[in-house]
Structure formats: structure tokens, C-alpha cells
Amino acid sequence: MSIQTYLINLSDNKQYRLNGIIPSLRLPNKEQLRKYFSNHIRLKSDQLPPKVDLRSEMTAVEDQSTTCCWCLRRLKSDQLPPKVDLRSEMTAVEDQSTTCCCTAIALAGAYEYLLKKRCGRDIDVSRLFMYYNGRAKKNEDIIKDTGCSMTHIIEALEESGTCLESLWPYDIPSVDVKPNKQAYEQAKNHKITSAFKLNFDLNEMKTCLAQGFPFAFGIHLYKSFNKATTCGVVPQPTADEQARDKHASHAMLAVGYSDQSQAFICRNSWGNSWGDQGYCYISYNYIANSDFCFDAWAIREYETNDMGHDNWDNDDSTDYINRNGNDDINDNEDRHEIRDIKVDENDISGKDGVIDDNNGTSITSSSSYN
Questions:
Q1: CATH number at residue 213
Q2: Could you tell me which residues belong to the region Disordered (predicted)?
Q3: Which backbone phi and psi does 346 adopt, to 5 degrees?
Q4: Number of structural domains the chain divides into
Q5: pLDDT of residue 36
Q6: How far is the C-alpha of 273 from the C-alpha of 282, rounded, in Å?
Q7: Which of 38, 120, 145, 248 is the most exposed place for a label (fewest CB within 10 A)?
Q8: Calpha distance 362→370 (Å, rounded)
């Protein structure tokens, strides 16, 4: 038997797998994968606009030197608009289902975004390929569906790359199976060149998004997190909740911010029926706080990746936190819990079966997700 941690909605018994991200114990070994974003772009808080929106196709890149692309240049205050929203440039939101591969899915989303910016179309890369090779970086002899660190996924994406989803599909029973030779051969053509570690500094995180780069991050979440299921708004953990409630970890991808909302726009991995079409809004005070979040990284496919800025949007009129329909955020009724569940090893693959939790409650794994 193994222990799996889920966030459970007690109203409909939907379960969402947690603890898929393992905090990194070290930085990546290669220099190009351990750059600090703060060493390349530094802007004061009053230089950042409340919103940037890169939803339409980008126009031609500006002229630039051979030594520094636009995305690594120091910017002036009049070069930045008031909001960033990269959602229209993202591929479809994924559903991790019963696997623990949220870290791989977050970074796969970032990589697919880079491919779409370069090629102009959606390209679906293999999440299980990235997840397997990330875990193999830690211990190739023991591959289990127990999560992975950002460092290991980033190193694997630079060394092995990733193949297309069509070649190594998201087949849950194969979560611990090594991809075939054809997958590794194709993956040689899909690698990253560098990665940037972000400090948990609000100005730095907003700047990264304003430059057109989403960033993956780990977050400690509490049972109130699932209030975002219907409204998309994640509540700030209260002091009482932090003191008495069980929490777990999860990986997500920040794809925008709004000063009007005082929140980051984040892409989850629980399908498009969760939150606001698979996305949610998390306050600045939650994400830019190292007590709640950890391991924030942005990746680049090419050293010359330049996202431009012609499509920035100065309209930041939507308040995602307080708009109509967000009544659930103020609902104090307790309908959620984080629960450890004992699972038979033979049932971890996602096959139909019965899971017994610590309280003896039977849960049918096949009905946990839409």
C-alpha cells in the first residue's frame, strides 16, 4: 500500500491529486540552467504597469544586438503597459487525473507556449516523457509516481528534450514505464537551452511575465484552495488555517497578472472544468511570499527567444477577484478537505477500482474526475 494525498470537494466527491512537486534540494548542474532572472532584468515597482496582454499573434521582432536579446534588456517605464495575460497564447489546459505529475505539466505548458510563439500553432508535447526523465534524474532504478522537483524536470528537458504527445501519450497505466527509443530519438529535436530562477519578489515576477515568459512555481495549498473550483479565485490562507489545517504542495504555471485584481493569473492541471476554464487567480501576497511558494522558474527554448511587446494591452478594467459570480470566495461553509488515502499499488495506474482512505471510506477511482 502507498499513501496518496488528495484535495477533496465534499459536495461532489471530486478528488485532485496533490504533492506532485518535490522541493528542489539543489540548483541544476549546468550554468545555463541556473541563471538568476534578477541578474538580467531589474525594474522598480513603479516601472511596472498594472496589465500586459499578449493574446494575439506577435509582430516582427525589433532590431537587436547579437549579444543581448530584447527580453534581457533593461526596460524603461514607458515601455511597459498595465497588464499581462498570456492565456490566449497557451495550449489547452491539461488534466493530470490521478497521477502526481503536476511539475511536468506546468513546465510542459511553458514549453508548449514557446513552441506556439515560434511556430504559430498548438504543439502537444509528452508530459509523461518529461515526468519519467525528470524522476530518472534522481534515481533511474526506482521510478514511482510520487512527484518530481523542478530542478530534475529542467535538467531532463535540456538533456533529453521531449517528444510529441502522439508518440508517447498520456496513458496513466504507463506512468512509470520508460519511453521507447522512437520517443527519445524525436525528443532530441525538442530541448530547452536555458532556465531562469526567480526570486519571490513581486516586481521580479511581474517583470518576467511582462517580458512574455510564463513561470512555473510550487505552492503550499490548503483546503480552501478548492473554493476556486467554481469561481477561479483562490483565497489567501488565514492565520487560523495555517495553524490548524493540513496542507500539501502543487505545481502551477503563472501566465499573467493584473494590478486591478492584485493577483496573478495561473494555469492549473485539473482540466478546463475547474476554476475559470482551467485557470485561477491567486493574490500577489500569496505567490510572492516564500512562506507559501517555492521553486519559481522560467525556461527558454532558444537563447534568442524574444517575445516582443507590440500586443501589450493597457486595459486593466476587469477585477477578477471581485467580479460577479465570485460569491464562493466568501462562503465560510467547509466543503473541502485534504486527505491522505491508502492505495493498493496495483490500483495506482488509474485502473477502475476501490481506494480505501484512512477512515475506511470507499472511493471509486474511476469516478473521481470528469
A1: 3.90.70.10
A2: 347-370
A3: -75, -10
A4: 1
A5: 78
A6: 18
A7: 120
A8: 18
Q: Which amino acid belongs to residue 264?
A: F
Residue 144 lies in a domain: yes
Name residues whose C-beta falls within 8 Å of residue 287's C-beta, 6 or more positions apart in sequence: 200, 205, 217, 219, 254, 264, 266, 293
**Residue 256: pLDDT band by 50, 70, 90 thresholds?**
very high
CB 249 within 8 A of CB 219: yes
d(CA 146, CA 130): 14
pTM above 0.85, yes or no: no
Q: Judge contact between 368 and 343, C-beta under 8 A.
A: no
Closest CA relative to residue 316, chosen from 85, 78, 87: 85
- Is the pLDDT score of 72 beyond 70? no
CB 93 within 8 A of CB 272: yes
Residue count (the chain): 370
Q: Which domain holds residue 52?
A: 19-335
Q: Which helix (H) or strand (E) holds 182?
A: helix 181-187
What is the reported pLDDT for 306? 61
In the chain, what is the straight-line distance between the N-terminal and C-terminal CA atoms, in Å? Answer: 26
